[in-house]
Amino acid sequence: MIGDPLEMAAEALHSAAKVLLACHVNPDGDTMGSALALGLALHSAGKEVTLVCADEVPLPYRFMPGSDSFLRAVPEEAFDVAVALDCDGERRLGSLAPAVRRAPCVIEIDHHTGTDRFGDIVAVDSTAAATAVLVYELIRLLAQPITADIATNLFVGIMTDTGSFRFANTRARSLRIAAELVDCGADPYQIADHVYETRSRGATLLLGQALNSLRLYQEGQIATARLTAEDFESAGASDADTEGIVNHVRAIAGVQIALLLREINGKVRVSLRSREPVDVAEIAREFGGGGHRVAAGCTIPLPIAQAEERLLDAARRGLQRAHSSPRP
Ligand code: 5GP
Ligand code: MN
What we know:
This protein is an alpha/beta fold. It has helices at about 5-15, 30-45, 95-100, 130-140, 150-160, 170-185, 190-195, 200-210, 230-235, 245-250, 280-285, 305-325, and strands spanning about 20, 50, 80-85, 105-110, 120-125, 215, 220-225, 255-265, 265-275, 290, 295-300.
């Protein structure tokens, strides 16, 4: 529990009139659910709320209550408080960063382990399964009711960041909050149907291409898959349609590190996944990225074959570290 910074955040929000809520680039269910839930709670507390995300809301998240109110850039207005949700470092805000920083009070609410902090109030708890868990606690501190719409948004955050309550971060705290959200009106079946069973045709074609490109290294401990610019073009899909594909790569028996490489705008976006005790955030940080021990990402400005070579080298070292040193 962080306690103090979250209470400071509640106080700052309590005395604010105009609040800016910002998500990270390539938005996921946690950053969206956290911002939407906090936005609804602040709105019912009488605040003027503006929601921003530099990228478009991905299709599976468009059912989330309030998701049509996201702006792609920060309007030229003065805000009393800006809140960055689920952002592991300022760079995760993408083009929004300068405008977010301009607010007189910047609050970070996050659960990543990174140390690149930029807020005046840093409410970061890496033991929380999702940023949505912290937002749930914040809304309680603000003494706002958890409506069915707020519950739905928070449930999406916790469900997606725990891989549907399967990952190592699935603990009693997250399950208890999830149960409470169901009591408040979140419908797990409907939510899962939207998030996991509403893939676009292009996303499914990309899944096929990625699985076709599978390669295994180090006696099957490292697995890679790649999607080229041509794959995206022939599938008529975008990077937002690749969410979840890397989990299929990681699901192969014996795989400890899964890498999904995508050719985007002449650079290579990488999703890294691992099984404990392998730490892929450490590998992602070698390339200027970051994330969690078992789920991380980075962008490498190299041709895809070279990016893969570098990544494999770092992954081999990561495997070695995991199996030669005691767990932290
Ligand atoms: P994904 O592979 O789903 O894009 O990202 C997995 C995790 O790594 C998420 O928690 C995400 O926030 C983090 N992550 C992804 N890309 C980056 C990046 O470029 N920089 C940092 N710091 N974190 C990233
Ligand atoms: Mn998260």
